[in-house]
Amino acid sequence: MAEAYIVGAVRTPVGTKKGALKDVHPADLGAHVLKELVNRTGVDPSAVEDVITGCVMQVGPQSLDIARTAWLSAGLPENVPGVTIDRQCGSSQQAIHFAAQGVLSGTQDLVVASGIEQMAVVPMGSSVAMALEKGMPFPYGDGWAERYGQQEISQFRGAQLMAEKWGFSREDLEKYALESHQRASKAIEAGYFDREIAPIAGLSKDEGARPDTSLEKMAGLNPLREGWAITAAVASQISVGASALLIASEEAVKQHNLTPRARIHTLTVCGSDPVYMLTGPIPATEKALQRSGLKIDDIDVFEVNEAFAPVPMAWAADTGASLEKTNPNGGAIALGHPLGATGGILMTKLLHELERTGGRYGLQTMCEGGGQANATIIERI
C-alpha cells in the first residue's frame, strides 16, 4: 500500500496586524518558508512536482496564483508549477490533503503544501469588495436565499449561536481564552516553537500572545453585539504568516535520502450547517476516527483551530476529547489566525509537539467558511 510522509515542516512566526511583518509582501512570506523547507530537507527543488498553496483572500498582491509567484520569488526552479486553492480557513490543511492524495495515488512523489495570508495588507473581506461595490449581494444569490432565507450568515453569528446552543457563558469563553494565552506564553518562553520557526524581518517569536492578560481585562471589553457572549478576547487574532510542508512517497524518500517524520494516516473532509458555520470539526473528527479505526483516547495531541472559543469547547464536549491534550501550546486566540496559512501552521505545530513529547498520533481539524471542516490524523515515525 502506498504511503505519504511528511519529511519537512516549517513556518514563519505569526505576526500581528501592526507588528514586524505588516509590510512584508505575501509572495515574499511564502518564498521565505519555501526556501527554508528546501534548505532544511536537502531536497533537490527541481524534483518537486507541484506546489499547492492555500490562500483565502486571492486579490491584490495575493492574486495571480501566489503559489507560483512565491516559488519563483524564492529563486527556485522554473520547471515546478504551483496552484492556489481556497477552502476558507482550512485552505492549507486542504493543500496538505491534496499533496498527500497525489502521493497516495501514485501519480506524484514529491509535493509541497503551503499556505500564505498577509492580513495586514489584504484584509479579511477584500475578495467580496468588488461585488458589494456593484450592488450585488455576495456570495449569496437567489438560490441561497430560497434555501436559507435572508438571515445573517457570518462567522461571528455562528460563534454566538454555538455559545448559546452549548450553553457557554461569556465567563466560560473568557476562561478558555485566558488558558490559551497562558499556554502560548509558556511555550514561547520555553522555546517549544523555535525548531519549527524560520525567522523573518527580524522576528523570531510569535507576536500575539499576551502573558499579562486577565479575566478582569477581558470582562471590560464590549461584546461584538449587545447581549452576545462573543468579544474580541475570545476570537482569533488578525495575523500575518506562512507555512510549508514537503510530502513524499516511499520511493522519493529513498531516492532523495529524505527522513520521514510522520506518515499521513487519515484524511477526511465534510460539510456542516452553513448558518452555524463553525461546527464542522465535530463530524469531521468523528468521520476521521471511524475511517482510521482509532478511538479518541488513542490520539496524543489535538490541534483544533481557535477561530472562536466556542469551537474547540463544543468540539471537546461532543467528541469526548481531552482539553488538556487540545492546543497544548495555545491556539489562534493567543497566537493568531492568518487564514489560508493556518492549516499548515497547525500541522507544523502538531508534528513538532509529537516529536517533543514522544506522542504517536496527532489529529488536526478546523472550522471553515460555508460550514465545512477538514480532519487529518498523522502518525509520528
- By CATH reckoning, the class of the domain at 265-380 would read Alpha Beta
Distance between the termini: 17 Å
Q: Mean pLDDT across all residues, rounded?
A: 97
Percent helix range:
25-40%
Order of helices and strands: EEHEHEHEHHHHHEHEHEHHHEE
| Amount of beta strand | 15-25%
- For this structure, the CATH topology of the domain at 265-380 is Peroxisomal Thiolase, Chain A, domain 1
Largest sheet properties: 10 strands, mixed
The class by helix and strand makeup works out as alpha/beta
Radius of gyration: 20 Å
CATH superfamily of the domain at 265-380: Thiolase/Chalcone synthase
Query: Can you tell me the CATH architecture of the domain at 265-380?
Result: 3-Layer(aba) Sandwich
Tell me the number of helical segments per DSSP (H or I, 4 or more residues long): 13
Shape: globular
Query: Low-confidence parts lasting 5 or more residues at pLDDT below 50?
Result: none
Total strand segments: 10
